């Protein structure tokens, strides 16, 4: 008998990807290798997930701990780029896909698989990201997205197919939302949230307490950075992974980090998204604050533009791309002196700057002060303003006074 082709599946252990294991075997005649990535999601027992795949006849299954790699490469760049799509969403799903894709491709090479499969729907961003990353890493690999292909469009039809094909059906009721989470935060979509006028139900939140139930006394937190990378919390040096976990706890217990937004998907759909991103928002805010004293005005202005571009490109799935590499090269320079400490006050869902310092600060008190010890030369301002306003005074003289020269 000819050897079957092999497919590597991004496997989560849920109903969809469990049905997919069997579907790839029966409908596509493939040998399945099921890979489950630990990117810090709240899924307790990934070994159990692995066993489940093997029980269903997967020829190989692995639960891979990708957390350190995810943190030290992707999350690190995201902090340096203040990565927030449409200025709001810290990109948690978009950031996890590249590291998972890289491992899927590595495993495909290791086992001689020709194909990679995933369980994403045909309407979302994650299909775009997986496939764009995989195409960049190895354009020769084939991709199967069963959910885009099969007729199992309702949960009932999927459950029926599962029981007919000996797929273990989860005993738990269908979750009312679609959730994706990892150490950079949690995304909640679907269900009652699809009506944009509906209030987010209290039960969607798990990483953050309700701000009204947060402690009655403020909590102060100090976050230190070295070259744009968080290095300590409250003076305690930490690697990035434990530091992010700690940041999630601190911000989460103070009710900070909830987002409810309408977001523009790659495929052209606007969607209602709720997120909780306590740690990521805290660290990005701290990083932005530190950049405000260590980068000059023009670099900051350019960087804000680059940051926006970085976030869009990563959201669109272009992690492995020339443009993302180029912006990261820009940041390798901009981050050289982004070192120092920011102190925030967290109180019932709010985050306030409380102090900031850096050995490389461009903030010069002797220039800024209105008190003693002023070193700023006030007499130089007149000449500066004469030249600064030359453009508009010339215009006014030639084409009439500005008051009478208005649009429309
Ligand atoms: N809208 C977010 C994004 O595209 C979150 C996607 C969450 N994925 C999911 N399967 N629930 O990045």
Automatic annotation (TrEMBL):
HAMAP family: Arg_succ_synth_type1. It catalyses: L-citrulline + L-aspartate + ATP = 2-(N(omega)-L-arginino)succinate + AMP + diphosphate + H(+). It is found in: Cytoplasm. ATP binds at residues 10-18, 119. Gene3D superfamilies: Argininosuccinate synthetase, chain A, domain 2, HUPs, Single helix bin. GO terms for molecular function: argininosuccinate synthase activity. L-aspartate binds at residues 121, 125-126. This is Argininosuccinate synthase. Homotetramer. Residues 177-393 form the Arginosuccinate synthase C-terminal domain. Its EC number is 6.3.4.5. It comes from the Bacteria. CDD domains: ASS. It is an enzyme of class 6 (ligase). Pathway: Amino-acid biosynthesis; L-arginine biosynthesis; L-arginine from L-ornithine and carbamoyl phosphate: step 2/3. L-citrulline binds at residues 89, 125, 129, 178, 263, 275. SUPFAM superfamilies: Adenine nucleotide alpha hydrolases-like (SSF52402), Argininosuccinate synthetase, C-terminal domain (SSF69864). Residues 6-168 form the Arginosuccinate synthase-like N-terminal domain. InterPro entries: Arginosuc_syn_C, Arginosuc_syn_N, Arginosuc_synth, Arginosuc_synth_CS, Arginosuc_synth_type_1_subfam, AS_cat/multimer_dom_body, Rossmann-like_a/b/a_fold. Keywords: Amino-acid biosynthesis, Arginine biosynthesis, ATP-binding, Cytoplasm, Ligase, Nucleotide-binding. NCBIfam families: argG, PRK00509.1. Belongs to the argininosuccinate synthase family. Type 1 subfamily. Its main location: cytoplasm.
């Amino acid at each position: 008998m000819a050897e079957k082709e092999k497919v590597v599946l991004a496997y989560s252990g849920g109903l969809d990807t469990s049905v997919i294991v069997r579907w790839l075997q029966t409908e596509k005649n493939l040998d399945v290798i099921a890979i489950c990535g630990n990117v810090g999601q709240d899924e307790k027992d990934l070994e159990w997930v692995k066993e489940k795949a093997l029980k269903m006849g997967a020829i190989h299954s692995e639960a891979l701990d990708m957390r350190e790699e995810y943190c030290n490469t992707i999350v690190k760049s995201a902090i340096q780029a203040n990565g927030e799509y449409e200025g709001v969403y810290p990109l948690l799903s978009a950031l996890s896909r590249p590291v998972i894709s890289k491992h899927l491709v590595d495993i495909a090479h290791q086992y001689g698989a020709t194909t990679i499969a995933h369980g994403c729907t045909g309407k979302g961003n994650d299909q775009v990201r997986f496939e764009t990353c995989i195409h960049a890493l190895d354009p020769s690999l084939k991709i199967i997205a069963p959910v885009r292909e099969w007729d199992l469009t309702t949960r009932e039809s999927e459950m029926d197919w599962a029981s007919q094909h000996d797929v273990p059906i989860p005993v738990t009721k269908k979750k009312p939302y679609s959730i994706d989470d990892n150490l950079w935060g949690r995304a909640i979509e679907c269900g009652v949230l699809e009506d944009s006028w509906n209030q987010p139900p209290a039960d969607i939140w798990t990483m953050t307490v309700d701000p009204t139930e947060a402690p009655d006394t403020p909590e102060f937190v100090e976050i230190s950075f070295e070259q744009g990378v968080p290095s300590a919390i409250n003076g305690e040096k930490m690697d990035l992974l434990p530091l992010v976990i700690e940041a999630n706890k601190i911000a989460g217990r103070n009710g900070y980090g909830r987002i409810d937004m309408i977001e523009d998907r790659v495929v052209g759909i606007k969607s209602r998204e709720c997120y909780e991103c306590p740690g990521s928002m805290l660290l990005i805010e701290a990083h932005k604050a530190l950049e405000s004293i260590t980068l000059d005005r023009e670099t900051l202005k350019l960087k804000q533009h680059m940051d926006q571009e970085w976030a869009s490109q990563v959201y669109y799935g272009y992690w492995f791309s020339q443009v993302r590499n180029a912006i990261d090269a820009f940041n390798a320079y901009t981050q050289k002196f982004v070192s120092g400490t920011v102190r925030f006050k967290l109180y019932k869902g709010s985050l306030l700057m409380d102090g900031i310092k850096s050995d490389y600060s461009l903030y010069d008190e002797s220039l800024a002060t209105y008190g003693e010890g002023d070193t700023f030369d006030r007499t130089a301002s007149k000449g500066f303003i004469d030249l600064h306003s030359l453009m508009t005074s010339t215009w006014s003289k030639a084409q009439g006074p500005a008051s009478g020269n208005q649009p429309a």
